[in-house]
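By way of example, we now present a protein record of this kind:
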Amino acid sequence: MAIQHLSFDSANPAHIEAFTQVWNEACGANLSVSERFVRFNVAPNTGGSQAGQVAFADGQPVGVVLASWLAGEPFVRPPDLGWIDALAVVPSAQHQSIGAQLLAWAEQWLREQGCRGCALGTSLRPFTPGVPVELESVPFFQRNGYMESRTVWDMAANLAYYESPPTVRKIDGVVRPARAEDKEALLDFLRREFPGRWRYEAEESLRDPAVRFSDYMLLWTERGVDGFCRLSFEDSRQPIERYFPYGLPRPWGQLGTVGVSADRRGRGYGAALLDAGLRRLHNNGVNGCVIDWLVIVDFYAKFGFTTHREYRQMEKAL
């Protein structure tokens, strides 16, 4: 089989189609993506660089790889650590060294950017927060020098009959959807309390005029914004399939990061914020809901969530 490698061009519709085709053949229906999702994920990030390759055999795409890194944001990611955003090879072309060659190319590109290490997934616009256990590809990455660092989970629940659990108690504050005029208050809160990735992601998101401010939920106290979380609906700017809600009852929704000021933690504010987000999703007709990329699952289990998908986060020194 003669293999041709071409540089991935995010502006080329044929490459977006090829990536989508390869990913879906390799990963299956439970982890499938749309072209809209791929376009969203390969859009540029401030300070970020991304490169990739598409492998073709007899004119048909059989493999893809994407790698990225971030400069100028050490609180988000040290500049000497990069990401392998995605790697996929169609089943008919597996076990022929195509995946290893694509991975080696991506690692070399990262070295040329000055990276001394990289992680699988977890990138700025992640396809997955690690290696999905169901794909049984962890041994491949182990053979190529990657070490497991931790396990993370997506959790899911049917919100059709959601009711606030007894663990939610009254707080001295109010949670409501964000308004356009709340932008600076939200960003000031994040710069103070979460100056790393959460702040960066919010700044990037709110630069996009298509983003709906009300997808953010804000916790207000007497001193201003003291907490936030972000919701995704099926019509949100951020594609809902990023969370692989397949198999859950529609309409789908997602609840993202939940953050509260350091001096307000342990006093019920986080539970009240989570509950307000889930009630809003429920009141808007959402049934199948995912909370993604979790390390500690017990807190969310109190709200009716169970584990939905498991990932192994893996890293390698370059």
Remarks:
- Residues 210 and 276 are 24 Å apart (CA to CA).
- DSSP finds eight helices and 13 strands in the chain.
- Residues 13-27 form the longest helix (15 residues).
